[in-house]
Amino acid sequence: MRETALASNGTYQGRVSIGGGSVTVETIIAPVVGRLLTDHPGLRFSVREGSSDDIERAVMGGDLDLAVVTTPSEPAPNGLARRRLMAAPLGICTRPSHPLAHRREVTWDDLGQWPIVTMRPGTVLHQWLREYLPDAEAVVEAMSARTVQTMVAQGAGVGLLARFDTLQPATDLVCGSPWWTRSRSRSAWSSVRTANRRDPPSSSVG
Known about the structure:
By secondary structure, the protein is an alpha/beta fold. The protein is about 25% helix and about 35% strand. It has helices spanning about 1-5, 20-40, 50-60, 110, 125-130, 145-155; strands at about 10-20, 45-50, 65-70, 80-95, 115-120, 140, 160, 175, 185-195, 200-205. Strands 1, 2, 3, 4, 5, 6, 7, 8, 9 and 10 form a 10-stranded mixed beta sheet that branches. Helix 2 (about 20-40) links the parallel strand 1 (about 10-20) and strand 2 (about 45-50). The longest helix is centred in the first third of the chain and has 18 residues, at about 20-40.
């Protein structure tokens, strides 16, 4: 969005409704929105947080213009286009004193020995946790990556997040520990309807 706005040699006018998970809103959407508002005061945004599934349904229903979601577990439904934006490796968050805190590699089996703090059902992380560790003890199923960090810092368990979840860790917390050799990565995708889309913001060149 920022590149398009800067390339227009003018000012965008209009309103854009964007959706995303708590992680993508914090780490991807918020910085872009801040820069665009500075460069293009006539452009207005509304942002909605939710699970990737909920946000994509809102795009399909026309309530949102686009969404930034984590790697979808299913192919895009008819009428929805996805474009990959970035990828980040999975990792763990622990307290500094935890036995896994300074391990160079952590496997699913290693993780399964501990209470786990991660995102709520309906998120990609939770789906992967249940796929690889169906019997894992998920003691906290959070709404946001910040809650995962906070609960881990208080000793609730080992946090499962993606690397871009942990750019600004909470205090008393070690984040971004390396994951297993054959790592899965979680990606950020943008989703837009492919038909009957709202009119895009207008560009005023001059």
